[in-house]
Amino acid sequence: MEGTWWSLLPFLLIIPLAVWLKELLPGLVVGLLVGAFCLEGSVIGAIERAVSAIVHALVDDEHVKVALFLYLFGSLIGMIQITGGIKGLVERLSGRIRTKRGLLFFVWLTVPVTFFMPMFRIMLLGPVMKAVLRQFRVDRRRMAYMIDVSTEPIIVLLPAATAFVGFMTSVVDGALVQNGIRQSAYDLFLRSLPYNLFAIIALAIGLLTTVLNIRIGRPPGKKGEGTINELHGLGLRKELSLIAGEPLHLFVPLALLIVLTFAFFAYDGWRRGADSWLAAFSQADATWAMLLALFVTLFVSILFYVWRGQSLPELIYHFFAGGNELMAPIGMLVLVWAVSGVAGELGFAAYVSSTFATWLPGPFVPASVFLAGSFLSYFIGSSWGTWGMLMPLGVALAHATGAPLDVTIGAVFASGTFGAFASPLGDTTITTAAMMDMDLLSYAKYKLRISLICAGLSLLGYALLPLWIG
């Protein structure tokens, strides 16, 4: 469908409604229904189209993998909690980490073993960091930000063994083929990494605030700290207070998960025809490999816990209780996917592209692509969606105007990174807020201030880079 301003309506409704109601879910439902109505022109047709969009979001293979991974990871965390694993680690940390800065450095030190995908890091670190917040008196939002900034901004800069490499290379390859450019997609992807300015700047600011122990933003008020999640968690906290801490019950399943993740990465890559270890990690379906590793880890962990004297009925209960803790973010992600699908049918990407990027001269193509992509990604909350929709346009503009191709590709990747990191619709924002028991919109607003500074510096960089290179 040819894009018109109507394609903006779902997103123009979602954000104001979310801010007004202080809840994202109603805005997503209204945005989905309005978008569906724009497609169908009738109330009944809109309801049918909205439900159909939700069903399509649920049956998409990649979406199912992400949702199942989230639920099962929550289940694993639930079992680790009730067996005393997280409590044991907190007790161990309390004797070794004595300062806020030491705790923040601990977040960064875990990167080498948790870099596969953002969700992996968030769900691994979230429960542990949340458990030690009161002891070290660290602002909950600051800790969540440190976890967030050490996920996607790092992962998009790694050239192999992440959930992103295969997809990022494939969208570059598709854009090159579409424009008749005969260059290596992976080579261009590697050359574009230094030009993902948003990721680099966000990462630098995150590290700087850790080293200098700088407070980010204003101190939190009393609102938003005692949310409904706190009330619902009282029973679980009372139960956890009665169990004995046992670090082994955390280390064994997580070590097994990490080892198996590497193993299934290699297995899936070799199965797809890779001829080297690096190629195997790059070609593997990362989400599938991690889902397989998680499934095996859950099975072995249950056997391990039973062998250690844990009650099987108690483990099963907390298996489902832990997974159900993440049903709210999973539900919101399904609605985000549905809204993005409806907006795509309305021509949202085409409208944004034609409005923001088609009239600028070559030296300003990277900056205009970054600006258009940041706008797009903020409203859809998806880096992958932004890259898929904007990369063909960015490559076409660079090819036609003589703009630096690697800088332009880097700008496209940076724009998607901005939206996934800053948007209240982003899966990392939703999941981090849920794992840390924070109000979603309050946390998104907190991150947006910092993200806009990084985006402004990035935009300036993209305006100057073509002049400097050329």
UniProtKB/TrEMBL annotation:
It is found in: Cell membrane. Keywords: Cell membrane, Membrane, Transmembrane, Transmembrane helix. The keyword Transmembrane applies. GO terms for cellular component: plasma membrane. It holds the Pfam family Na_H_antiporter. The chain crosses the membrane at residues 6-21, 28-47, 67-90, 102-124, 154-176, 197-216, 248-267, 288-307, 327-352, 364-387, 407-425, 446-469. It is a multi-pass membrane protein. The keyword Transmembrane applies. Its main location: membrane. Residues 161-445 form the Na+/H+ antiporter NhaC-like C-terminal domain. This is Na+/H+ antiporter. It comes from Geobacillus subterraneus. The lineage of its organism: Bacteria, Bacillati, Bacillota, Bacilli, Bacillales.
